[in-house]
Amino acid sequence: MTQSVTREDFDTWMVPLYAPAPFIPDRGFGSRLWDKEGKEYIDFAGGIAANALGHAHPALRQALEQQAAKLWHTGNGYTNEPILRLAKQLIDATFAERAFFCNSGAEANEAALKLARKYGHDRGGPEKSAILAFDRAFHGRTLFTVSAGGQPAWSRDFAPLPPDIHHVPYNDLEAAAKLIDDRTCAVIVEPVQGEGGVIPARREFLAGLRERCDRHDALLIFDEVQTGVGRTGSLYAYMHYGVTPDVLTSAKALGGGFPVGAMLTTDVIGRTLGVGTHGTTWGGNPLAGAVGGRVLELVNTPELLEGVRQRHQHFITRLQAINARLALFREIRGLGLLIGCELRPEYAGQAKTILRAAAAEGLMMLVAGPDVLRFAPSLIIDEQDIDEGLERFEHACRNVVGEGRL
């Protein structure tokens, strides 16, 4: 007999790292989801930008089920066909010549940072170890990646932290240039800061980082965990900007909701990590390779990427109209289907209040800090679902404003 569970059981059984919503999602299809009580929600959260093709996409289900009937897992002492095919797809579609697979974005960034340190040590000795990152960045929750992240509240309780990591304001090329020198082994940057507030980089900022990394033989790492695999309307955001990194990390949408991460780089740089210098038990397993390969086949087409750009404009137009009526947002920004609405100063700190009100109206969405509402829906969300979801969103905002909770 299956044990019945409730949301309250989370508070009893789980380590209290999260404060999940009061409902338990039970099933989903496309951009709609139903909880255990049968209530319907429109999903603008997308599994934190991971469900690139929505819930239960038939082609992804087929890929998973077919592979599950053949081979699930062998470990890194062996290779497998699905992951090799996925590696070749990524190489053919990007600047990369080598791929490393893992289970998450944090692991992909951990691998990238370890690669950078070893590359620096090999070429310049142990003194070439400095890493430049940016305020309000997010690169994961391992000790190395949370140290590279520019949010001290998430790292200070775990000191002492890995040394020689320095932070400057995002989009401030002048401040970055002062710290990039011959001791620098890497600069790690998100083309769009996601958790930091959905803030797109300026092209001249990324181009300037590229030039200074070249000048000082440092690796430029693009963290595309949230922006990759179609999210910005390009397969990867570096293509939108026309600035090519040395190392790129990918996860989230790469598996369409199935756990998989990847670090992509060139042949010369990739050879820095020889046998035994890094690894993972589960990374690159056949299930992840099969699903990721199908995701790339479906996403990396001109039609789908153009559809993302069109949906972006539809979202922006509707959000601007809502703001014209309610005057809630100081700025609406983002690329593709990664969109942020920053609350006006008089509503500072109230993003979660609106998030909870939206859930009550049957809408799942995200925040990006206390002042920014974040939208990261399926890349193929129907226009009808966008419109209905934004109607629910506006109703939630009106309810909150009307009750004086903002």
TrEMBL record:
Presence of keyword Cytoplasm: yes
Q: Name the domain of life this protein comes from.
A: Bacteria
**What GO terms are given for molecular function?**
identical protein binding; N2-acetyl-L-ornithine:2-oxoglutarate 5-aminotransferase activity; pyridoxal phosphate binding; succinyldiaminopimelate transaminase activity
Q: Give the matching SUPFAM superfamilies.
A: PLP-dependent transferases
Q: What is its main location?
A: cytoplasm
- Which GO CC terms are listed, alphabetically? cytoplasm
Cofactors per UniProt? pyridoxal 5'-phosphate
Swiss-Prot/TrEMBL keywords: Amino-acid biosynthesis, Aminotransferase, Arginine biosynthesis, Cytoplasm, Lysine biosynthesis, Pyridoxal phosphate, Transferase
Q: Which BP terms from GO are recorded?
A: L-arginine biosynthetic process; L-arginine catabolic process; lysine biosynthetic process via diaminopimelate
User: Where is this chain's protein located in or outside the cell?
Assistant: Cytoplasm
State one Pfam family annotation.
Aminotran_3
Annotated InterPro entries: Ac/SucOrn_transaminase_bac, AcOrn/SuccOrn_fam, Aminotrans_3, Aminotrans_3_PPA_site, Class-III_PLP-dep_AT, PyrdxlP-dep_Trfase, PyrdxlP-dep_Trfase_major, PyrdxlP-dep_Trfase_small
Q: In the record, which positions carry N6-(pyridoxal phosphate)lysine?
A: 252
How would you summarize the oligomeric state and partners of this protein?
Homodimer.
What is the recorded name of this protein? Acetylornithine/succinyldiaminopimelate aminotransferase
Q: Which organism is it from?
A: Jejubacter calystegiae
Q: Which lineage? A: Bacteria, Pseudomonadati, Pseudomonadota, Gammaproteobacteria, Enterobacterales
